[in-house]
């Protein structure tokens, strides 16, 4: 299946609805105060690149890359609309995020996600894509409601 990926400014009602859906899903599966998903304002910060995936005029999903420092990024706000699950949207977005991280010469990319049955598919997805379990990074604190993963990236040959 082919998707069009584009950097998005989060101004359309479709994209804002998807972010609201993402936040609702995170809050529905994680206790209050333990959700680290970003709202629209947070995703518009200059250190974040936000992509949307489209099939024709239909918004299929989103994902973002946050620059933590010159050598490190963080995967944020990965979400696939339910009608497009298991059709390659998440893979296309993650591939774009990884390519961008490589272009920026990042040495590694991290992510933080939830625990429990609602997050099992995400854990398997990231493990299949070269991520491994790790400890907290940045300003995160480990709790029983989150886990951390990292993917080491090769040095640029430039």
Summarize the helix and strand pattern as letters: EHHEEEHEHEE
Distance between the termini: 33 Å
β content, as a range?
25-35%
Annotation field: number of helices? 4
Based on the coordinates given, report the CATH architecture of the domain at 4-110.
3-Layer(aba) Sandwich
Name its key features:
alpha+beta, seven-stranded mixed β-sheet, Aminopeptidase, globular, 158 residues
Write the layout of secondary structure elements.
Blueprint: E1 4-7, H1 13-29, H2 40-43, E2 48-55, E3 58-69, E4 72-80, H3 89-103, E5 108-114, H4 120-128, E6 132-134, E7 146-152
Parallel strand pairs: 4-5
Antiparallel strand pairs: 1-2, 2-3, 3-4, 5-7, 6-7
3D structure, described in words:
There is one protein chain. With 158 residues, the chain is α+β, with helices and mostly antiparallel strands. The chain has a domain at 4-110: Aminopeptidase. The chain is 28% helix and 32% strand. A seven-stranded mixed sheet has the order 1-2-3-4-5-7-6, with helices on both faces. It is globular, with a radius of gyration of 15 Å. The N and C termini lie far apart (33 Å). The model has no long low-confidence stretch (mean pLDDT 92).
């Amino acid at each position: 299946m082919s998707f069009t990926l584009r950097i998005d400014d989060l101004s359309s009602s479709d994209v804002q609805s998807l972010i609201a859906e993402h936040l609702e899903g995170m809050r529905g599966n994680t206790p209050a105060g333990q959700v680290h998903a970003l709202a629209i304002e947070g995703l518009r910060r200059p250190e974040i690149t936000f992509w949307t995936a489209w099939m024709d005029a239909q918004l299929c999903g989103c994902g973002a890359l946050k620059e933590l420092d010159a050598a490190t990024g963080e995967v944020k706000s990965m979400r696939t609309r339910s009608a497009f699950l298991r059709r390659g949207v998440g893979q296309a977005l993650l591939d774009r995020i990884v390519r961008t991280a490589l272009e920026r010469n990042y040495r590694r990319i991290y992510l933080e996600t939830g625990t429990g049955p609602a997050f099992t598919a995400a854990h398997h997805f990231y493990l299949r894509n070269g991520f491994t379990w790790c400890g907290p990074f940045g300003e995160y604190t480990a709790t029983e409601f989150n886990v951390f993963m990292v993917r080491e990236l090769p040095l640029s040959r430039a």
